[in-house]
């Protein structure tokens, strides 16, 4: 019988297989950041072990880095110590690091692909759940815990139990106003935050094939919000075109050899998935979350649901709690929800395509009075490219703040946070209670919805804008 | 990881049930960036009470903790194991451990021994009466001995072997280092490297 894409990549990395033991899998790329690596390095130090493959390891600073005044010392002592510890560890163990102020610095999941380090068929790990982002290239990429970080540093392998496979097929073409973010939010609402548990999800179908690499990364990034171990998309010409010429992409004869191998990385016709979900692209519309987990979402045109409408008692209970925390009432149109803050950024939607989409909407318009809008590029490279296209000017002219690269308000470990009770429309990936700041209320949205929301001051799609304020007026 | 064969030391009787990992090591200690230096955070809140058993001068240097049932519930933080080890404990005895805590402890080389509550009661009585009494935790014989208490305990063969050999997961993988090296020799040369070494 044939094999799925995920099984092919897994099989190609088995170092050792023994009866009654997990497979020992080789890891091609290990990404590090300051939050989950310190105890792993400490463990190596205590055991007197080196990093086995410094040439397959790379670190960046992202979670704790400020997005303002980056030349000044970091005020928060905890953040400062974590960053300094990473720098010391990288120097001691010989790991390549991109620190604050470096041109390659940025959110770890933006940096890997942009350097061409993430390639099809690889195994990629990081002590960070959104490592699933790299699956957009047809890599098997997943988040690991700190003990596993230490394990990979010491051995470049991981003992792993097998996973199940799920296919999510999105048939047909996405309507013009619908983005990759809307698609994945709709998928999570459909299968639930635990729907992917134990699975590696492969996204397939025409709508997926038509996505850019940025869009594919947005989709795979949020696989973890459906509980999945990883998300994957088979590599194709879009993937190869994105990689060609990047710093670490193969060149010359190597490129040809690589493309030949990469082209074999697709699920065989006769392969069977453990579970299949089919979605019709034509039925999708701009999608937003109303609750406190990424599965609590609905089309923007809908109303805040009535908890009583959930048949499952635990879902009903969760909805009740969510509405209370979010300060919403059942039946209220989602479009009526006013926001205080709009956040553009994160490893979900902090890349060039996202910033361009936001700029296209903001050009000639103003952010609504009383709304704070933060635009935080996912990496310094994204920032430089955006400036070269004049996007920073578009943002600041509209009244938004143009910031330095990092995770920023995606998780509020740095000073970029919501105040208690404040409400945001955010292009990030988690709307958990307090995720963007204690007591903060988050609505997950696409960059396009975020931009329209910034202009109108309430949740809105770009189409609402044309009706309200014509561009250039 | 140091091999664990048999350990003899004085004990601290902790007559409390449902000791959760927040009590073992409070959350504000989790900001630390090392696996060491957690000893002062161990049971931090309780140790503020001068009467707390940990503060008795005769208990200093103890290396076996005799705890109440359901020890280690709550968050999965590995720091709880590190804190107990940093303080100097080699073994914890209880009639019931929380699963994740027990998994973490056996991975990290802290031997968690499950004994019936009657035996734990007997150990409490013994060590409370005489702080100097020594408790032997013998992994080779799977037996705990102290005064007139002799109790066999169960532990699965694989975990026992791993602890006797002092093999953490990394140590186990490194036993197959030849396989890893052989695999590396077969990797395509065009695969990306982050730096030349
Ligand atoms: S941007 Fe957000 S989700 Fe992505 S790595 Fe940073 S904190 Fe995690």
TrEMBL record, chain A:
The role this protein plays is: Catalyzes the isomerization between 2-isopropylmalate and 3-isopropylmalate, via the formation of 2-isopropylmaleate.
Report the enzyme's class at the first EC level: lyase
Q: Where is this region: Disordered?
A: 418-442
- Quote the catalytic activity from the record: (2R,3S)-3-isopropylmalate = (2S)-2-isopropylmalate
Q: How is the cofactor bound?
A: Binds 1 [4Fe-4S] cluster per subunit.
| Pfam families, per database record | Aconitase
Which Gene Ontology BP terms does the record give? L-leucine biosynthetic process
Domain Aconitase/3-isopropylmalate dehydratase large subunit alpha/beta/alpha intervals: 7-457
Q: Which domain of life is it from?
A: Bacteria
Summarize the subunit comment.
Heterodimer of LeuC and LeuD.
Per the record, the pathway is:
Amino-acid biosynthesis; L-leucine biosynthesis; L-leucine from 3-methyl-2-oxobutanoate: step 2/4
Q: Which residues bind [4Fe-4S] cluster?
A: 347, 407, 410
Q: EC no.?
A: 4.2.1.33
Q: Which terms are listed as keywords in the entry?
A: 4Fe-4S, Amino-acid biosynthesis, Branched-chain amino acid biosynthesis, Iron, Iron-sulfur, Leucine biosynthesis, Lyase, Metal-binding
Q: Which organism is it from?
A: Yinghuangia soli
Taxonomy of the source species: Bacteria, Bacillati, Actinomycetota, Actinomycetes, Kitasatosporales
Q: Does the keyword Lyase apply?
A: yes
HAMAP family associated with the record: LeuC_type1
The family classification in the record reads:
Belongs to the aconitase/IPM isomerase family. LeuC type 1 subfamily.
Q: Which NCBIfam families match?
A: leuC, PRK05478.1, PRK12466.1
Q: What is this protein called?
A: 3-isopropylmalate dehydratase large subunit
**Cofactor list:** [4Fe-4S] cluster
From TrEMBL, chain B:
* Annotated EC: 4.2.1.33
Top-rank lineage group of the source organism: Bacteria
**Lyase is among the record's keywords:** yes
Q: In which pathway does it act?
A: Amino-acid biosynthesis; L-leucine biosynthesis; L-leucine from 3-methyl-2-oxobutanoate: step 2/4
Q: Which GO terms describe its cellular component?
A: 3-isopropylmalate dehydratase complex
Check the record and name the Pfam families matching this protein: Aconitase_C
Keywords from UniProt, A to Z, are: Amino-acid biosynthesis, Branched-chain amino acid biosynthesis, Leucine biosynthesis, Lyase
Q: For this protein, what is any one GO molecular function term?
A: 3-isopropylmalate dehydratase activity
Tell me the ranges covered by the Aconitase A/isopropylmalate dehydratase small subunit swivel domain, including all copies: 1-118
Listed under catalytic activity are: (2R,3S)-3-isopropylmalate = (2S)-2-isopropylmalate
Q: Does the keyword Lyase apply?
A: yes
Listed Gene3D superfamilies: Aconitase, domain 4
**Which is a GO BP term held by this UniProt record?**
L-leucine biosynthetic process
Subunit architecture:
Heterodimer of LeuC and LeuD.
**Record-linked NCBIfam families:** leuD (TIGR00171), PRK01641.1 (NF002458)
Role noted for this protein: Catalyzes the isomerization between 2-isopropylmalate and 3-isopropylmalate, via the formation of 2-isopropylmaleate.
Please state which protein family the record places this protein in. Belongs to the LeuD family. LeuD type 1 subfamily.
Q: What is this protein called?
A: 3-isopropylmalate dehydratase small subunit
Gene that codes for this? Answer: leuD
């Amino acid at each position: 019988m044939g094999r799925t894409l995920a099984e092919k990549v897994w099989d190609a990395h088995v170092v050792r297989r023994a009866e009654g033991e997990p497979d020992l899998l080789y890891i091609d790329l290990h990404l590090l950041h300051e939050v989950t690596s310190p105890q792993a390095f400490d463990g190596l130090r205590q055991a007197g072990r080196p990093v086995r493959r410094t040439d397959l390891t790379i670190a960046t600073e992202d979670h704790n880095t400020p997005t303002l005044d980056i030349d000044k010392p970091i005020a928060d002592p905890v953040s400062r110590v974590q960053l300094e510890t990473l720098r010391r560890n990288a120097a001691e163990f010989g790991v390549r690091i991109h620190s604050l102020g470096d041109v390659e610095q940025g959110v770890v999941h933006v940096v890997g692909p942009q350097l061409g380090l993430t390639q099809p068929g690889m195994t990629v790990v990081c002590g960070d759940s959104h490592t699933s982002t790299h699956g957009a290239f047809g890599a098997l990429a997943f988040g690991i815990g700190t003990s596993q970080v230490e394990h990979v540093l010491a051995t470049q392998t991981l003992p792993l139990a097998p996973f199940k496979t799920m296919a999510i097929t999105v048939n047909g073409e996405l309507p013009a106003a619908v983005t990759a973010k809307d698609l994945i939010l709709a998928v999570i609402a459909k299968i639930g935050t635990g729907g992917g548990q134990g699975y590696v999800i492969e996204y397939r179908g025409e709508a997926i094939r038509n996505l850019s690499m940025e869009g594919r990364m947005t989709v795979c990034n949020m696989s973890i919000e459906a509980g999945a171990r990883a998300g994957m998309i088979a590599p194709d010409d879009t993937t190869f075109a994105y990689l060609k010429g990047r710093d670490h992409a193969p060149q010359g004869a190597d490129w040809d050899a690589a493309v030949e191998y990469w082209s074999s990385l697709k699920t065989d016709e006769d392969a069977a998935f453990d579970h299949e979900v089919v979605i019709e692209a034509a039925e999708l519309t701009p999608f937003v979350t109303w609750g406190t987990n990424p599965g609590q979402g609905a089309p923007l045109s809908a109303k805040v649901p009535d908890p009583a409408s959930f048949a499952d008692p635990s879902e009903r209970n969760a909805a009740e709690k969510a509405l209370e925390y979010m300060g919403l009432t059942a039946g209220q149109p989602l479009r009526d929800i006013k926001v205080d803050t709009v956040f553009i950024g994160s490893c979900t939607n902090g890349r060039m395509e996202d910033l361009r989409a936001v700029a296209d909407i903001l050009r000639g318009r103003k952010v609504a009075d009383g709304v704070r809008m933060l635009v935080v590029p996912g990496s310094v490279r994204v920032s430089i490219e955006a400036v070269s296209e004049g996007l920073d000017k578009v943002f600041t002219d509209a009244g938004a703040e143009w910031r330095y690269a990092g995770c920023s308000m995606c998780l509020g470990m740095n000073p970029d946070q919501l105040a208690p009770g404040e409400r945001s429309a955010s292009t990030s990936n988690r709307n958990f209670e307090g995720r963007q700041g204690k007591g903060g209320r988050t609505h997950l949205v696409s960059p396009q919805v975020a931009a329209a929301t910034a202009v109108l001051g309430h949740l809105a799609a770009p189409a609402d804008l044309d009706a309200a304020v014509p561009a250039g007026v | 990881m140091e091999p664990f064969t048999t350990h003899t030391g004085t004990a601290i009787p902790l007559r409390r049930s449902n000791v959760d990992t927040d009590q073992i090591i409070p959350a504000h200690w989790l900001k630390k960036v090392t696996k060491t230096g957690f000893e002062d955070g161990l049971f931090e809140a309780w140790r503020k009470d001068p009467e707390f058993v940990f503060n008795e001068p005769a208990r200093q240097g103890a290396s076996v903790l005799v705890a109440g049932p359901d020890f280690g519930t709550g968050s999965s933080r590995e720091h709880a194991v590190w804190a107990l080890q940093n303080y100097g404990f080699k073994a914890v005895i209880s009639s019931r451990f929380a699963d994740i805590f027990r998994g973490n402890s056996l991975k990290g080389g802290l031997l968690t021994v499950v004994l019936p509550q009657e035996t734990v009661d007997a150990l409490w009585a013994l060590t409370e009466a005489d702080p100097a009494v020594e408790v032997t935790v013998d992994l080779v014989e799977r037996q705990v001995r102290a005064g007139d208490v002799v109790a066999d305990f169960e532990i699965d063969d694989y975990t026992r072997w791993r602890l006797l050999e002092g093999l953490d997961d990394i140590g186990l993988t490194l036993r197959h280092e030849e396989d890893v090296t052989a695999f590396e020799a077969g990797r395509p040369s065009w695969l990306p490297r982050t730096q030349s070494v």
